Inverse folding.
């Protein structure tokens, strides 16, 4: 399959939708995201687990600079592409059930967002990756600024943009430096990742470039203490947009570590391993602690994401195949879980007179058993209960850390315990006890079910058969961490 | 045989799914579907048992794999079950007792409007427990372990409009989650050492390890943490009494007969490892011993009928943990079985009494039910006699066998035995304290009413824990109450259990029958304690005589205090006020944990939330950028007003340009 079709389909349809009549535009984009999802499922089914880059598209884009338009799929990004298309499909379908001001533009931005994220996941050229990585920000900026909630949203969104833009600039510089410095010795400049991997930079060069990349990615995730934009940013976004934003964009950053940083800067990776592990632990503990004291349901999920991304970072920088396998699986798992959870928070807020404060919710489980069940399954998955795919991911991550740096694993387990506290607290406060006066206790609507049930079904599917993802990821994961593993040996 | 074992697992899961999907239409049929599913599972367990017995002794350990679950990068997590005498004994007891409890629940929960949800949870619980005991590798064990914990959570907070119930559920879940973590971390140590998650693969290598290898001791102690959390051993026991917030049949099934015995099962299952890590095994034995004494002392002072039985459970599990940790495997499993019968029975009886009291659980308000609840009285009497260890009831044989076996270990194990006999004495006292207070004495108004043929009915339903008026809007707990005397399903369930509680002990009379010991032999083949701690010693009989005497003495004292001379208890209470306060407050475990763990964590949380995040994240770190933010947002606000469209257009243009460039290039 030509990956360009998958990549550009949403943007192309989005463009058409922008000029289409306002009744058609939403349906058109929703359909496009569903078709993209179908293509991604085909990609997963068609994937050859023996590894290697597949469905490669490689053309010289800007030959003077050695920038390739190179796309490819392997075990690292296969399921992330699936997650992205699923997330955007869910967001687009859920958005269809609401009226938006200027729908054409709204859906255009949503579709552009999908193309940008897919581009970042599929790019096999550093420059191309940077382009898509920065491009991601623009549609989300408008989605939050124009269609978001709250009076402070412009300020919140600007804060987010400033944060990530600083990171992006640093990364841009680092990317250019990587390409330029690795050129020479008889080979022309090239940004293709395969070429960059082949020409290793000197250790000290790697180190400062590593830091720039790391900063960009940690801000994007976000990780403690670079998460200052997160609370306001989360509160500002429309709930459907937030669902996909939280599920997908943070993964691009984690993915960037695995795809670019570990194989291209292996010496620096090994050098900064402890630093990264400490940051990861800090994110886990801080995110968890904040999650169980926040009263805003969105922020509970926001801070829990910081903690979850901490686990993923931990797995990546365990620098062994088990940790990395767990991290790759956990990226998909966290995305799968957070989409329905955020959408459920939206539904709950509608039941609670528009308030997203946990203190204004409660007690609706009896009249809304289906909603309660879907919520419960998602909440159990998010706290990584054994039997969920999230546990498999966490098991591999912690096993990886346990094998490389035992002490870190012990501390990380505290985060595992805290996850139970915040996830259960969220569930109980929203569904159990007596209802608050303004709560309207009713079951989820058919439309909401249309979006949520398939999402939860996917969670259950992976809970029963995580091997599907693990098996396909194995070869690529081992290959991508190989350079860094060799350095640490 | 393996097919039958898979069916044992599949039926409860199917029951859960059918009831969940059909919750709208099923109504009371849900109860029968749930009961049938478990009964079918029991039948399949019997088939498994028979087929296993057909195999030659040395072939009675069969592993079967369904599919690869997470089999990658050297970690071999598969869906594998292990069928051997130990797991078969467990599934027989679990499915058997569960069937009876489902049957009991069909009536007991009939008026509750959450009845479909109840049976879906109950079936899910049975599935989880079966998964736990049938698991053939550590990964699946952890999964079953956690499923049991979550099913228990769901059932404890079943009446979730009660804040006491949701709080108790959360407490149980979190303590169990801590146990899961201990288990997982323990498995990491084992995996590091053996390189496989498969039970048989690990056990094969166990004898090659040197005694008290550091990694292994750490791993086994961590496994014990998991076992302690699930089996309510100190100091992770505080959830069990609160778990009485769940419906009474749930207490009967989960918090007496099955879930809490998971830790016992785990220790027995891991015998090859515990025998090479005696340091860890000793930890288990000592903790079990402390728990059995402490829990028995607490049970003496509680006034909530269900909590008395709950502490009794904790104490009895302590015997089992002490036993299997000391190498008394068959005795521990034997006691697990008899305890499942008589404890499930006691809880069911308590449920019947609570029904007659229209939901009240306070023993201070009970009395004189002997004549009006004759069936409940007789069956509970059997249960109490078995609990107190009076011959020939089942608990007599199993408890004394544990103590006899532990005594044979000699040395400091004698201290455990003495403590065990001391607690047995207390057991008889608290068991009959309950009997005398509930069934003896003057008839309370509820009993009077029942004598006139009416079941007491509460005008206003209140939460028995905190007196809060129930939320009748949603109709649960159900407005109707049931007593065994008037409900055939309850009667059948209690009758069968009473029969089993009476006769199950004969399965293993030292030197006479020894059926359990012989049956379990293949699992424990190669153990250095299994045969040497034989019950054939004459000590067994001395021990049994002592046990019986102690039990009778306890009953006599209970009779003196609570029946013969009413008021004696108040005198004792006043004389030993400090001791009483300590026991009544459950040795202040809750308070200690609250101050040592819960409050500091909450404080850290508040500090992060209210201070750190505001000062450091929002001010200090963003401080530098906040100027830019302000300038930026001003600019954006200006642009936002009318220019959004042109921005979008510019964006599109740019994208189009890029696309065009690309097309021209290629």
């Amino acid at each position: 399959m030509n990956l360009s079709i998958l990549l550009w389909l949403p943007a192309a349809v989005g463009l058409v939708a922008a000029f289409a009549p306002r009744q058609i535009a939403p349906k058109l984009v929703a359909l496009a995201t569903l078709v993209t999802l179908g293509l991604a499922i085909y990609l997963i089914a068609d994937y050859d687990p023996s590894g290697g880059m597949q469905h490669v598209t490689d053309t010289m884009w800007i030959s003077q600079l050695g920038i390739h338009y190179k796309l490819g799929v392997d075990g690292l990004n296969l399921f992330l592409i699936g997650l992205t298309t699923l997330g955007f499909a869910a967001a687009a379908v859920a958005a269809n059930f609401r009226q938006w001001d200027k729908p054409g533009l709204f859906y255009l931005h949503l579709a552009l967002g999908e193309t940008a994220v897919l581009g970042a996941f599929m790019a096999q050229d550093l420059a191309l990756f940077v382009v898509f990585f920065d491009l991601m920000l623009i549609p989300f900026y408008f989605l939050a600024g124009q269609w978001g909630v709250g009076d402070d949203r412009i300020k919140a969104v600007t804060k987010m943009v400033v944060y990530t833009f600083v990171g992006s600039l640093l990364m841009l510089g680092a990317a250019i430096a990587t390409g330029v410095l690795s050129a020479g010795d008889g080979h022309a400049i090239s940004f293709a990742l395969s070429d960059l991997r082949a020409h290793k930079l000197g250790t000290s060069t790697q180190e400062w470039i590593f830091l720039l990349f790391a900063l960009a990615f940690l801000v994007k995730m976000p990780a403690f203490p670079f998460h200052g934009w997160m609370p306001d940013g989360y509160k500002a976004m429309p709930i459907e947009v937030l669902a996909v934003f939280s599920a997908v964009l943070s993964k691009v950053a984690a993915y960037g570590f695995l795809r670019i940083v570990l194989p291209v800067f292996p010496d620096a990776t090994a050098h900064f391993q402890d630093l990264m592990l400490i940051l990861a632990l800090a994110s886990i503990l801080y995110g968890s602690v904040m999650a169980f004291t926040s009263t805003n349901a969105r922020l509970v999920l926001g801070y829990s994401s910081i903690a979850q991304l901490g686990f993923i970072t931990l797995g990546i920088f365990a620098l062994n195949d088990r940790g990395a396998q767990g991290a790759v699986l956990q990226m998909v798992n966290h995305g799968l879980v957070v989409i329905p959870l955020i959408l459920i928070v939206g539904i709950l807020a509608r039941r609670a007179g528009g308030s997203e404060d946990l203190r204004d919710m409660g007690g609706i489980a009896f009249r809304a058993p289906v909603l309660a069940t879907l919520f419960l399954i998602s909440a159990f998955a998010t706290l990584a209960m054994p039997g969920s795919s999230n546990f498999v991911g966490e098991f591999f991550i912690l096993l990886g850390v346990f094998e490389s740096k035992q002490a870190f694993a012990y501390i990380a387990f505290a985060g595992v315990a805290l996850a139970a506290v915040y996830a259960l607290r969220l569930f109980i406060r929203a569904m159990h006890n007596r209802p608050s006066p303004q709560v309207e206790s009713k079951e989820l609507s058919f439309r909401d079910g249309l979006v949520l049930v398939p999402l939860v079904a996917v969670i259950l599917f992976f809970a029963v058969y995580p091997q599907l993802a693990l098996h396909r990821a194995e070869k690529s994961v081992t290959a991508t961490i190989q350079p860094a593993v060799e350095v640490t040996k | 045989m393996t097919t039958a074992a898979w069916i044992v697992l599949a039926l409860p899961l199917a029951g859960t799914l059918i009831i969940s999907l059909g919750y709208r239409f099923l109504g009371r049929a849900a109860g029968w579907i749930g009961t049938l599913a478990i009964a079918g599972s029991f039948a399949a367990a019997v088939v498994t048992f028979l087929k296993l017995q057909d195999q030659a002794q040395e072939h009675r350990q069969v592993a079967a794999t369904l599919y690869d679950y997470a089999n990658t990068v050297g970690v071999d997590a598969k869906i594998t079950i292990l069928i051997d005498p130990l797991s078969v004994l467990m599934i027989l007891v679990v499915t058997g007792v569960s069937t009876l409890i489902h049957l009991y629940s069909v009536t007991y929960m009939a008026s509750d409007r959450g009845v479909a949800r109840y049976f879906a949870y109950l079936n899910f619980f049975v599935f989880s427990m079966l998964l736990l005991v049938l698991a053939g590798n550590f990964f699946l064990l952890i999964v079953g372990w956690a499923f049991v914990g979550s099913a228990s959570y769901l059932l404890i907070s079943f009446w979730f409009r009660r804040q006491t119930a949701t709080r108790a559920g959360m407490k149980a879940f979190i303590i169990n989650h801590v146990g899961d973590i201990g288990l997982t971390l323990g498995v990491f140590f084992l995996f590091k050492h053996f390189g496989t998650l498969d039970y048989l693969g690990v056990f094969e290598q166990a004898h090659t390890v040197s005694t008290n290898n550091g990694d292994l001791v750490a791993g086994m102690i961590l496994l014990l943490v998991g076992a302690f959390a699930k089996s309510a051993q100190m100091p992770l026991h505080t959830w069990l009494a609160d778990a009485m917030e769940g419906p009474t049949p749930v207490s009967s099934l989960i918090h007496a007969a099955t879930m809490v015995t998971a830790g016992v099962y785990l220790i027995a299952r891991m015998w090859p490892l515990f025998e090479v890590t005696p340091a860890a095994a000793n930890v288990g034995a000592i903790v079990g011993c402390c728990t059995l004494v402490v829990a028995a002392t607490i049970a003496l002072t509680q006034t909530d009928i269900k909590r008395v039985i709950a502490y009794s459970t904790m104490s009895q599990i302590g015997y089992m943990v002490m036993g299997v940790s000391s190498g008394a495997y068959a005795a521990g499993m034997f006691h697990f079985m008899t305890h499942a019968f008589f404890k499930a029975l006691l809880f069911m009886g308590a449920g019947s009494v609570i029904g007659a009291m229209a939901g009240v659980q306070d023993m201070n308000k009970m009395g004189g039910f002997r004549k009006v609840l004759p069936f409940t009285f007789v069956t509970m009497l059997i249960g109490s006699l078995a609990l107190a260890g009076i011959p020939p009831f089942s608990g007599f044989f199993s408890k004394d066998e544990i103590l006899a076996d532990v005594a044979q270990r000699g040395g400091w194990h004698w201290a455990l035995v003495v403590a065990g006999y001391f607690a047995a004495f207390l057991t008889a006292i608290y068991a009959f304290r309950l009997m005398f207070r509930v069934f003896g004495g003057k008839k309370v108004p509820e009993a009077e009413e029942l004598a006139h043929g009416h079941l007491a009915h509460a005008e206003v339903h209140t939460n028995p824990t905190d007196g809060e008026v129930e939320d009748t809007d949603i109709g649960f707990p159900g407005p109707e109450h049931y007593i065994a005397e008037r409900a055939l399903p309850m009667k059948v369930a209690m009758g069968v259990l009473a029969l089993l509680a009476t006769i199950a002990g004969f399965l293993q009379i030292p030197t006479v029958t020894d059926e359990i010991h012989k049956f379990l032999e293949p699992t424990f083949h190669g153990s250095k304690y299994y045969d040497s701690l034989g019950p054939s010693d004459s000590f067994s009989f001395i021990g049994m005589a002592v046990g019986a005497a102690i039990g009778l003495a306890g009953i006599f004292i209970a009779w003196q205090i609570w029946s013969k001379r009413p008021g004696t208890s108040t005198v004792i209470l006043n004389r030993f006020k400090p001791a009483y306060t300590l026991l009544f407050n459950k040795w202040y475990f809750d308070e200690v944990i609250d101050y040592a763990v819960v409050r500091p964590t909450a404080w850290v949380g508040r500090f992060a939330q209210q201070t750190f995040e505001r000062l450091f994240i929002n001010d200090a770190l963003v401080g530098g950028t906040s100027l830019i933010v302000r300038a930026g947002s001003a600019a954006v606000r200006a642009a936002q007003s009318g220019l959004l469209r042109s921005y979008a257009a510019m964006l599109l243009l740019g994208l189009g340009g890029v696309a065009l460039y690309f097309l021209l290039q290629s």
